[in-house]
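For consistency, the fold was encoded as tokens, as this record shows:
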Amino acid sequence: IEGAAELTATALLIGFARSIAMILEQGQVLDTVIYYLSMPVEALGGHFGAVAMLVIQSMLNFFIPSGSGQAFVTMPIMVPIADAAGIGRQVAVMAFQMGDGLMNMIVPTNPVLMGILGLAGVPYERWFKFVAPLMLKLLAACAVALLIAVSIGY
């Protein structure tokens, strides 16, 4: 019972995170948010549009920490935008995978991350300070990879 008490804060945070996603879904706000976030991709086109997709997918991971849920919600919108911007569909999927995969290590709405941090006894603030510099480097590397992918017609 004492061990379970340590996870109470984590369980509450997971519940709050899920409630945010539910409110956005049930309130029919999520599609509007995604639509307006995707407008810069179409405006930027090509190379910078692919990087914008990475940024958008990364931001959306806060609200939809589930990879399959995020793909279900965003890809039907992102694929036509990628087509219109002259970005290959593979690049759109690559931006999704990078944004989702990287942000899972840092967003506090990810139940797996919060559960592991709770079990390890590591406060989220401490984890964030530790991993943030690495995340910035990884995001920069992903942006370069996307630029290369667009350049070679991937």
